[in-house]
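User: My collaborator sent over this chain with a note saying "see what the structure looks like." That's all I know about it. Can you take a look?
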Amino acid sequence: MNIKKVITSALCAAMLALSVTACNNSETSGSSSSSSSSTTSQSSESSSESTPESSSESTPESTPAPDVVKIAAMSGPTGMGMAKLMEDNEENDYGYEFSVYGSPNDVTPLVANGDLDIACLPANLGSVLYNQTDGGVQVLAVNTLGVLYILENGDTVNSIDDLKGKTIFASGQGGTPEYSLRFILKESGIDPDNDVTIEWKTEHAECLQFLLQTENSVALLPQPFVTTALKQNEGIRVALDLNDEWDNTGAESSLLTGIVLVRKAFAEQYPDAVNQFLDRYAQSVGYVNNNIEEAAQLIEKFDIFKAAVAKDAIPACHIVCVRGDDMKDALSGYLQVLFDAEPKSVGGKLPADDFYYGA
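Assistant: Without extra context I'll predict from the sequence alone. Here is the result:
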């Protein structure tokens, strides 16, 4: 399967669907539905007429339901895609307990220790956790495509070669931002350890502040921080789109940013709950992409991002819910590229097939 076509079709579906039915119109209690293909936003007709096929074997008896499901999102596109589900959880008491974090470094140990059941993380960290926990996690979905950009408070960077000799403020060391940037630099003939200086910060917000305050500074930022920077300082510009730079390397896979993980033990104990979460999350993603004004208000309500920024950023955030075989094709291709460039970026080895839930 052509991975780039999978990703492109998933994004187009998310952006072109006209509407999404409310979650309570399309869910069945004890549902064990998931999908073996890409699931992004759904139209009101298709959402009510069809439910994705089960991604795990159905059981003749209903499985137990957890008292609470602990879910972590990030203060960015992954959290933005969760906003409608957070609202529905408040109204319908699904038993979800949401937490929003600014750094994946705060999330990964909680998943490894079993303190979180489901978490949104940078795409490569799922593989890292899989190896660290001896296969103790599975990926449920790709939830964000490429959202990384090089921004400059000035006008000296107009090509990838112009980064030579520059200091790049960045966050996400050990995650997708670091290894995607390093791969692009290496493939473009730039030594990331000697030709540039990458100054790592704890959170994207720190990089944003350096960029806003320092003339001729350069930063690696994802959406919606890109939109924030452009709004706050007229001198800041998008110098490079890393989606384009990634494609220019000739890599077979497209650039990915985020995934949704589940603890394998939790998925095995509560398969119905996991599949039901996936259906609800897919509908939340569709709602956010197709109801931007309303979604922006929810995004601010749950302290994910300011509504004014979210409203402008959502179309550029590439928020999706790619599941099943399409998820496996896209993510495995991306991880293969990272592994070939730097094995430690995926935890030393590629995950086995059981990493891909429902594929």
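A starting point for your reply to your collaborator: The chain is about 45% helix and 20% strand.
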